[in-house]
Amino acid sequence: MPNAVLGPARSFRVLGALAGAALLVALGLLWLLGSALRGAPAPQPTITILVWHWPFATQPPELSSDTCARYGVVRCRLTTDRSLLASADAVVFHHRELQSRRARLPLAQRPRGQPWVWASMESPSHTRGLGRLRGIFNWVLSYRRDSDIFVPYGCLEPREGTAPPLPAKSGVAVWVVSNFQRRQRRAQLYQQLAPHLPVDVFGRASRQPLCADCLLPTVAQYLFYLSFENSQHRDYITEKFWQNALAAGTLPVVLGPPRATYEAFAPPDAFVHVDDFGSARELAAFLTSMNESHYRRYFAWRERLQVRLIGDWRERFCAICTRYPHLPRGQVYQDLEGWFQA
Ligand SMILES: *[C@@H]1O[C@H](CO)[C@@H](O)[C@H](O)[C@H]1NC(C)=O
């Protein structure tokens, strides 16, 4: 039996070959594991957001492929091409066009499970027709902090470089108003303040409208900017505060949500809140008696912070992509009106 004679030597060779194979397999597995850990993560797919109506415009702005990248949001494509309804990752509807054009929603063509976003930066007082929108939208994009996609009108961020000097002042208080309605709280407060405080009024409601480029240089010459929101609602703080006052370099006297809300967005000593005073007369007395060092303290934040305006709808819509991986799936706003009025 040749095998019996050759037996032991052959067995060693077989064992050796087996051990070698096992070692190779183990090394191979280690290599695979190592490369999986070292290697680049699987590429994320690009998210396509279909904007059904461009807000306040018949013609959308140019949307190039790097539109969102310019706002620091990658792998995000905005489109207004409605033929992409079947494949879009989310569709966003701006409320004003739904309200005024009585537009029909493409409900029959909606792919099952496609997230729809309801978008509005207006306050509940200027929003109609929400009752018809029950059980349709999955996510909300608005200035409300509890929105799925929260987009304020502006924010403060760390300053780059040194703060520019405060603009030279030649007037006391300024109010810019395009839609003056006596029943609005801001109109009543103005009427009460005017006998005690020199207020210059500009805007469509006055006989002194301001051109778009004149607004900021004009208001910057005043010590105080009456940052009176058209209506008082939860978190409703608009560009009046961010742009016309803080960015322009004039001290905002705010009428809007409570002080605590403003303090969630800006330092407590960056504004004067009308609710801190028992009457318009007291508020006027406080403003007119302020000396320069006291006034300058309200601008201390400018040394370390700067205003970032978030006014462009492209940037607002790109924010959907930023939030997209974290947004709740399967959520539906059954009572959008109830949510928004709350
Ligand atoms: C300026 O006003 C502040 C606050 O009312 C007061 O404490 C301070 O003494 C005043 N400074 C001068 C120079 O009057």
From TrEMBL:
InterPro entries: Glyco_tran_10_C, Glyco_tran_10_N, Glyco_trans_10, GT10-like_C_sf
Principal EC category: transferase
All residue ranges annotated as the Fucosyltransferase N-terminal domain in the record: 46-154
Domain Fucosyltransferase C-terminal stretches: 167-339
Membrane topology, from the record: Single-pass type II membrane protein; Single-pass membrane protein
GO MF annotations in UniProt: 4-galactosyl-N-acetylglucosaminide 3-alpha-L-fucosyltransferase activity; alpha-(1->3)-fucosyltransferase activity
Pathway: Protein modification; protein glycosylation
UniProt keyword terms in alphabetical order: Glycoprotein, Glycosyltransferase, Golgi apparatus, Membrane, Signal-anchor, Transferase, Transmembrane, Transmembrane helix
Record's subcellular location: Golgi apparatus, Golgi stack membrane; Membrane
EC number: 2.4.1.-
Pfam families: Glyco_tran_10_N (PF17039), Glyco_transf_10 (PF00852)
GO CC list: Golgi cisterna membrane; trans-Golgi network
Biological process according to GO: CD4-positive, CD25-positive, alpha-beta regulatory T cell differentiation; ceramide metabolic process; embryo implantation; leukocyte migration involved in immune response; leukocyte migration involved in inflammatory response; lymphocyte migration into lymph node; positive regulation of leukocyte tethering or rolling; positive regulation of neutrophil migration
Family, as annotated: Belongs to the glycosyltransferase 10 family.
Protein name per its UniProtKB record: Fucosyltransferase
Gene from which this protein is expressed: FUT7
